[in-house]
Amino acid sequence: MSSRTTATGGTSSSNRRAPPTTTPANVASGRATPATQPTRRPRSSSNAAASSSSVAVNGPKPLFGVEIEIFVKLRPELERAIYTRRQRGEQLDEEYWRNWNFALSNEKGNQPLKDKQRECVGQAIEALIEGALGPNHHWKCEPDASLKEWALTEPPEPRKWWGIEIISPPMSAARQWRQEIHEVFAAVAEEFELWTSTFCACHVHVSPGPLKSSKYNFDQLVQIACASHFWEEALKTILPEERKINRYAQPNATVFANAEYNTVSRYTWAPVFQAVKSAAGTAQKFAARYPSEDRTKYAYAMFACLMAGAKVTDPDPSDTAERYLSSNFLPLPELGTVELRRQAGVASAHSTIQRALLALTLHVSALQYDFVAAASRRDHPTQAELKTELSLAIKRLPASCRGDRFLKCAATPTCPPPPAGGTSNPYEIWHPDPSNERPVIPTRYPAPSYPVVVREVVEVLMREGKQLVLRWVTVGRTRVRRVCRQLGIK
């Protein structure tokens, strides 16, 4: 699994807010308010809208990038067409089609041949993305053998799926990034079927922005590290079951400030937050021995290693640092990003956008939250507190980040598990209608994703011998019917 990517940035110290003052009334909530507050009249709706717009314009504009682990399979009609042309001896312009091994299975063994096949897959997908976005798009597609294709059993023709990682370039939250993600998925789905499972994840790298050259300062890093511990229990409640505890995205408290974290109910959050601040101070003192032009990089490296469980006294802290954490600080020295690894895999643009929005709102919340006030708490924040906090955070992001209910992707106690072997997210392919428990198409899918979604729904239901029941929606209705006709379903 990769930890490269995709966004670099930071916020200048001149833009930071002054530390908020607190009163006993707001200590419990953890959110700062002025020590004295004049009585304010309710604002008119027009004034409130203007204020919200002003916050978005002047608020944070982080950069981010996504790493999408996913299984893909060549569409049968395209596979037959290419195979037939090769059998006839026709010349194929694309080298990846000339090298495509139609007889190769993804089962264990044949590693050199499978590596070459994954390269062909990556080249084909990059060509599709270039056709959609034009040259210099900077999206990459790389093989990912860690996805265990050989273990797949549920998708159609399980031995024909290949694990890859689609990596975005740095994208600004202030630009039309959602449309770009839609275009990428629509392009890939033209020639490949998509599948996600518990093997997959969607990692999101975030930096403060607005420029690639911007850097995190240590006050911001302390805030993010405190947030990674503070919101852990609440975050679990909005994640699918297999992402609550996952060996590739362990809670940060597993390796840093574990004793302090486990005794919050006795000693409050103050020891946890103090441990983070001490680590930041240690990292900066460590870097002071190096030339001034290298100090930031070495300070980043040491802080990242300390957050990952390494010790200053280790001969090489990077060797003992744990990279498989929920919030991974190890990309800081090279990429200038913090990576959120906790979220489940995706098979649509809509779910990818949800993952990005969750990471962005956690980032914005962390930079603004008053952990000085929260330090006196002896409990863990609840899911309701987290959702309230994230709903406030998204209002501070640019307007290009709004319009998707990103928390709907969360697993909830009332939502049954997805079809066996399918996506780990119950909303990824289909979800039951609570009124009659009949399979329905999710109503929030964008039009470009409908053919893929419907095909996957139909295949799942046909394998289980269930009658297909579709909820027709206005957007994408023509595409839904076309796919059903192609599959011979009325």
TrEMBL record:
The species this protein was found in: Chaetomium globosum (strain ATCC 6205 / CBS 148.51 / DSM 1962 / NBRC 6347 / NRRL 1970)
Region ranges (Disordered): 1-58
PANTHER family: AMIDOLIGASE ENZYME
Domain of life: Eukaryota
Segments of skewed composition (Low complexity): 1-14, 44-58
Protein name, UniProt field: Amidoligase enzyme
